[in-house]
């Protein structure tokens, strides 16, 4: 037992993600999975389908999750953490129910879940918890006895997440022509969500925007310290969907690029702070659509990297895993978090991030599962 790391009571980590199509025939069934019962207009679905077809019907997200899975396994093995890591998705194979069945058959009894979203919101947290509840219920209906599942705290302010993001911004600045580098605006972008969902996010509401503003401020501070230059920054939104009469978070990134151009901003660095990998929302909505807008305006613009499978992010997941394990054992672990919001809660309280009609959600105080 000498220098082995202690993950007790957990006996598995589950990487839980969105999933994406892996070929043209997958695109329509994938979009049907994503939007089942969500009232997204048909035209929006056809349009989003085209984004995928532009890339041969392949989303990069699954390859990115395989790379993260690899990075996690390497990090755990290299640091003496003997904990198996599984992977499952909400919307595409490997499906969550199938991986939870495998986990159950492997005899695992306590599973810690890492969802690939750093922030509180219905889409980034609660919906994953609802998916866990649905899958656990399906396994119970099959006569199996599934394990207990818990979810890792939000990592938006963890140094192992923000460090790689800040380094990505610094690297991107070097890609801009020297003459516009110091005046470049840092344009932090995340997924737009309905105003109503933003208001309901987190234990006390408003967490989605507050957490993003804090992460963006911390990255802007780190970039200022590293470069000795103070640059203006803003938080903007992308990938809006849903019916037009429903208010969603604004401004949209492309409208913001126009505003920057009108204000004579010399350049922009687009920082996809809301996402953990360069998936389709980054490749299409930023690298294709926003890039075209910047070119049309003649505004020099670059896009910085997401954390992806960065070893510092894998190490942060190990740290958060050990932190939560210690807390479950009744110890008082160190909880690293930058800035002023402090470490996020371990257990979502009842009703956290719930939509108007709350569905059963696992891995929280209101979980119907033990
Ligand atoms: C907050 C948030 C994140 C970040 C947190 C997280 O990462 O979880 C995120 C990530 C992602 N969103 C993704 C794809 C899609 N999101 C959609 C629809 C929606 N997203 C929403 C929110 C979010 N989404 C919302 C409020 C909707 C409206 C309908 C609904 O309430 O569900 C639709 C339907 C078509 C459309 O409406 O655009 C698609 C295809 C992919 C996969 C990309 C790939 O394939 O590489 C990823 C990682
Ligand atoms: Fe939550």
Automatic annotation (TrEMBL):
PROSITE patterns in the cross-refs: FERROCHELATASE
Reaction(s) the record says it catalyses: Fe-coproporphyrin III + 2 H(+) = coproporphyrin III + Fe(2+)
GO molecular function: ferrochelatase activity; metal ion binding
Any one GO CC term of the record: cytoplasm
Name of protein: Coproporphyrin III ferrochelatase
Localization of this protein: Cytoplasm
Binding site for Fe(2+): 191, 281
Domain of life of the source: Bacteria
Family recorded in the similarity comment: Belongs to the ferrochelatase family.
EC number: 4.99.1.9
């Amino acid at each position: 037992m000498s220098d082995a790391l202690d993950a007790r009571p957990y006996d598995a980590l589950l990487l839980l993600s969105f999933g994406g199509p892996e070929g043209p025939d997958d695109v329509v069934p994938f979009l049907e999975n994503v939007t089942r019962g969500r009232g997204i207009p048909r035209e929006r679905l056809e349009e989003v389908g085209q984004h995928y077809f532009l890339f041969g019907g392949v989303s990069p997200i699954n390859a990115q999750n395989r790379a993260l899975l690899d990075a996690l396994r390497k990090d755990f093995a290299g640091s003496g953490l003997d904990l198996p890591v599984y992977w499952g998705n909400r919307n595409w194979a490997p499906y969550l129910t199938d991986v939870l069945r495998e986990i159950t058959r492997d005899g695992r009894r306590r599973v810690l879940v890492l969802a690939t979203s750093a922030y509180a919101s219905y889409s980034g947290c609660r919906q994953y918890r609802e998916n866990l509840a649905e899958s656990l219920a399906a396994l119970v209906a099959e006569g199996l006895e599934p394990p207990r599942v818990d979810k890792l705290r939000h990592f938006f302010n963890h140094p192992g997440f923000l460090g790689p993001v800040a380094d990505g911004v610094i690297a991107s600045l070097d890609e801009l022509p020297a003459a516009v580098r110091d005046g470049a605006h840092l344009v932090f972008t995340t997924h737009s969500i309905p105003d109503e969902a933003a208001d309901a996010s987190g234990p006390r509401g408003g967490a989605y925007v507050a957490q993003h503003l804090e992460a963006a401020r911390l990255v802007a501070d780190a970039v200022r310290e590293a470069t000795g230059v103070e640059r203006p920054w803003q938080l903007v939104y992308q990938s809006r969907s849903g019916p037009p009469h429903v208010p969603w978070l604004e401004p949209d990134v492309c409208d913001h690029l126009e505003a920057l151009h009108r204000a004579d901003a010399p350049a922009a660095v687009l920082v996809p702070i809301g996402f953990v990998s360069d998936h389709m929302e980054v490749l299409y909505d930023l690298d294709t659509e926003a890039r075209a807008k910047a070119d049309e305006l003649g505004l020099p613009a670059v896009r910085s990297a997401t954390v992806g499978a960065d070893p510092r992010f894998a190490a942060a997941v190990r740290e958060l895993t050990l932190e939560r394990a210690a807390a479950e054992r009744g110890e008082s672990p160190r909880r690293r978090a930058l800035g002023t919001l402090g470490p996020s809660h371990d257990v979502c309280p009842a009703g956290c991030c719930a939509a108007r009609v709350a569905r059963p959600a696992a891995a929280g105080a209101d979980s119907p599962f033990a």
